[in-house]
Design goal:
- The chain is an alpha/beta fold.
- It folds into two domains: 106 residues, Winged helix-like DNA-binding domain superfamily/Winged helix DNA-binding domain (Arc Repressor Mutant, subunit A, Orthogonal Bundle); 183 residues, Rossmann fold, CATH 3.40.50.
- 45% of the residues lie in helices and 19% in strands.
- It contains twelve helices and eleven strands.
- α10 links the parallel β7 and β8.
- α1 packs antiparallel against α4, α2 packs parallel to α6 and α3 packs across α4.
- The longest helix is centred in the middle third of the chain and has 40 residues.
């Protein structure tokens, strides 16, 4: 961060308001424009200035661009100072405080719109998901087993690959009983990311980062995460070995992988009705996939309370861990 660039970027009332809004939640450019009552092109220009100063970061999801605050939450010393300055300004400047308070009231409409979109999507797909849920152990039982299996070691930085509705990201979010230091939730589907965003918007702004991406080409540097999770996603992979190789690449030496999926089965209808590319996995197949990707596999855990057996496969990334715990880098910025 260059202090002269930062000070110029902050020298505008609208950009100050944008910074306070992004401190509350991640927002699309169009959502910011709605809250601020300004045109989207004008807001985009303000956003570009903030991003150029590293005060905010943006990434694209289809035709939308989402913004996150680039200050506070243990970032750079200058960024932390900027966050404190903005908070102090709101406490001491009554006019600025009034504008920020009104902006935050407008955020309620954004949250309601996200919830409505999520509810409509769930209503459209409820019958399909309920059909699948009836075939295996209750989600609560699976989650309890997974929490227990991962409770012996700190999770560190966690990547949830194929986050779907964001349930795993919510379960392991910072501040929960078994929370990670930070969570990055990735999905290829824009619809799923919108569902996850609605589910997770009650969490603190810096708890979970949502990223669009493909599990066959993860948009992260090597050794970025301490824990990598694939919950009910590997059966969608045409090439599971490639997906696990990518998972291994972004897992630090000594880090862990957790795979929750179905044991091998013969329910062919899942290919057509639910787009499953794989009808589950045998323990032998999974052990081979993990070994080929550089993971030492632990004994699998089985939940056999339904027609479909759910398995939890765990592995540790081979190679010596770093001598000292390191602070993992933020995920790479997209389309700045």
């Amino acid at each position: 961060m260059q202090i002269d660039t930062i000070m110029r970027a902050l020298a505008d009332p609208t950009r100050l308001r944008i910074m306070r809004l992004l401190g509350a939640m991640e927002l699309a450019v169009g959502e910011l424009a709605h809250v601020l009552g300004q045109s989207q092109p004008r807001v985009s220009r303000h956003v570009a200035i903030l991003c150029d100063a590293d005060l905010a970061s943006r990434r694209r999801e289809g035709s939308w661009a989402f913004l996150r605050s680039g200050v506070g939450a243990g970032g750079t010393p200058i960024g932390d100072a900027v966050a404190r300055l903005l908070a102090t300004a709101e406490r001491e400047d009554t006019e600025f405080a009034a504008a920020c308070e009104e902006d935050r009231r407008q955020l309620a409409a954004i949250r309601d719109a996200r919830d409505s979109h999520a509810a409509a999507y769930f209503a459209d797909h409820a019958e399909e998901w309920d059909e699948l849920r009836r075939l295996h152990s209750p989600d609560e039982a699976v989650e309890a087993k997974l929490l227990g299996a991962l409770s012996d070691t700190p999770l560190g930085a966690l990547l949830d690959i194929g986050t779907g509705t964001g349930r795993m990201a919510e379960l392991f979010a910072p501040g929960t009983n078994h929370g990670a230091e930070r969570v990055v939730a990735l999905d290829k589907s824009l619809d799923m990311l919108r569902m996850a965003r609605a589910k997770l918007q009650h969490l603190p702004n810096d708890s979970v980062e949502l990223v669009q991406g493909d599990f066959a080409a993860l948009p992260f540097a090597a050794h970025s995460f301490d824990t990598v999770m694939l919950h009910q996603v590997l059966h969608f992979a045409q090439n599971p070995a490639s997906a696990l190789a990518e998972a291994a690449r972004v897992t630090r030496p000594g880090g862990r992988i957790a795979i929750v999926d179905f044991a091998a089965h013969n329910l062919e209808q899942l290919r057509d009705r639910h787009a499953h590319a794989r009808l589950g996995f045998t323990d032998e197949t999974m052990a081979g996939l993990l070994a080929a990707s550089g993971f030492s596999a632990a004994a699998p855990i089985a939940l056999a309370d339904g027609e479909l057996v759910v398995k939890i496969w765990l592995g540790v990334r081979e190679g010596a861990p770093a001598a000292e715990p390191r602070k993992t880098e933020s995920t790479q910025k997209v389309a700045r």
